[in-house]
Amino acid sequence: MRVMQTLASGFGQLESPRWHDGRLWFADWTAGVIHAIDQDGRIEAVVEHRSLPLCFDFLPDGTPVLASGPEQALLLLSPDRTLTRYADLSALSPYGSNDIVVDGRGNTYVNNINFDFADGPPATGTAPGFVALITADGRARMVAEDLAFPNGMAVTADNATLVVAESYRHRLTAFEIADDGSLTNRRLWADVGDHSPDGICLDAEGAAWYADVGDRCCVRVTEGGQVTDRVQLDRGAFACALGGADGDTLFVVAARWPGVERLMEHAAWEGTVISTSAPAPGAGWPGPGA
């Protein structure tokens, strides 16, 4: 029987779990705060930045990089906790970026749903979402389009493949990564049925974990869509990450959907960080070695 452990609770909407330097980092969107929790349960509020979404990852040298909606930019978090501009994203979209992943070569991928979520989904048949590449010199360019609500992203350990969760198409989509960071040869990685995959991570056996809010679960699938494991929760799973001392702990950030009328009521979400064992350690990016 799987043991589920609650590591922390009392947050708002949670996203972007990342295992880094012996701690689990995660973003509380409604509070506008990025936290880190160590294995003894000590929680630190690392930085406050009001942004919806508020997603982040780490550059190869360990520097946190945030996707800021208000700034329409990527921001670097310095050791003294100040934020400085890394890349201007304003030419790509008037809307805030969603998820972010940095590969092992220092390329940063940021996606954008490219519509106003508060106004509801775009017209039937349209998929305005995209993925942008930000190179180490801070230059941004679009590298993939026609994505239906791009959400979680992950890069394989060999830096060869980017996997994107398309929430509105109910699938994981893969792209080959060219030497210059461009994305080519789009393909279906896994059809996930009626689930709407949110945050994802990859493991050393080549499988992916994805979080699903509506069905309140995290599911492990192989390429092609075979389900090999499932973690059921009592609230929506927004994202997941692999980490811990041996890399084989699955961390899930979960919350209750409070309804549109209570969207910004922090306590209504009952955001919680949960952990459990996984059958294989994490691999790729974001990853347990980040």
From TrEMBL:
The lineage of its organism: Bacteria, Bacillati, Actinomycetota, Actinomycetes, Mycobacteriales. Residues 15-255 form the SMP-30/Gluconolactonase/LRE-like region domain. The active site is at D198 (proton donor/acceptor). PANTHER family: LACTONASE DRP35, LIPOPROTEIN-RELATED. InterPro entries: 6-blade_b-propeller_TolB-like, SGL, SMP-30, SMP-30/CGR1_Lactonase. Its cofactor is Zn(2+). Substrate binds at N98, D116. Binds 1 divalent metal cation per subunit. It comes from the Bacteria. A divalent metal cation binds at E15, N151, D198. This is Sugar lactone lactonase YvrE. It comes from Rhodococcus maanshanensis. SUPFAM superfamilies: Calcium-dependent phosphotriesterase. Belongs to the SMP-30/CGR1 family. The keyword Zinc applies. Keywords: Hydrolase, Metal-binding, Zinc. It holds the Pfam family SGL. GO terms for molecular function: hydrolase activity; metal ion binding.
